[in-house]
């Protein structure tokens, strides 16, 4: 059993995750809670953190056909001609990061590789992180190497 990234049709991430769960597949669609303002009310909505991606924890040989047949699934995400394997600790880091921070943003990783550190205190203790620099406001960044994404939370 390993975690794999699945590419979905646009705006179907939560539905695909639900369908996969109904088929007996462990699926994870990270969501970001955002407060939206309409003219007459405010509402907290859940939006997928990674557009068009859902993560599945499967035995690839036994369950890949079930995943591929699921309505809304386009295909597995490939890396070096093989389905991209996501490490368990990276999935746990995403879950922990989302539970501790609101208004998280995802940026495609196009930056140069910098210094790597191990965080030795706080909620992300033990996690590997890349130093991305200091900006006008404080930012907590957790780079997920196997996906090429960064999670960013602004901290007051």
TrEMBL record:
Q: What sequence ranges are listed for the domain NusG-like N-terminal?
A: 1-98
| Keyword Plastid recorded | no
The protein's name? UpxY family transcription antiterminator
| Key words, A-Z | Transcription, Transcription antitermination, Transcription regulation
| Phylogenetic lineage | Bacteria, Pseudomonadati, Bacteroidota, Cytophagia, Cytophagales
Q: Which Gene3D superfamilies did the record assign?
A: NusG, N-terminal domain (3.30.70.940)
InterPro entries per the record? NGN-like_dom (IPR006645), NGN_dom_sf (IPR036735), NusG-like (IPR043425)
PANTHER family assigned to the protein according to its UniProt record, in alphabetical order: KOW MOTIF FAMILY PROTEIN, EXPRESSED, RHO-INTERACTING TRANSCRIPTION TERMINATION FACTOR NUSG
Top-level taxon of the source organism: Bacteria
């Amino acid at each position: 059993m390993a975690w794999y990234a699945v590419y979905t049709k646009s705006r179907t991430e939560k539905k695909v995750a639900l369908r996969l769960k109904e088929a007996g597949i462990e699926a994870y669609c990270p969501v970001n809670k955002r407060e939206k303002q309409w003219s007459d009310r405010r509402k907290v909505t859940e939006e997928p953190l990674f557009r068009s991606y859902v993560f599945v924890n499967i035995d690839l040989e036994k369950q890949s056909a079930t995943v591929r047949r699921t309505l809304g699934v386009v295909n597995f995400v490939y890396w070096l001609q093989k389905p991209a394997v996501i490490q368990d600790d990276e999935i746990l880091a995403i879950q922990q990061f989302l539970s501790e921070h609101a208004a998280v943003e995802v940026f495609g990783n196009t930056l140069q590789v910098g210094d790597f550190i191990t965080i030795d205190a706080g909620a992300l203790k033990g996690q590997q992180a890349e130093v991305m620099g200091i900006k006008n406001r404080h930012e907590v960044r957790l780079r997920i190497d196997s996906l090429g994404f960064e999670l960013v939370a602004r901290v007051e």
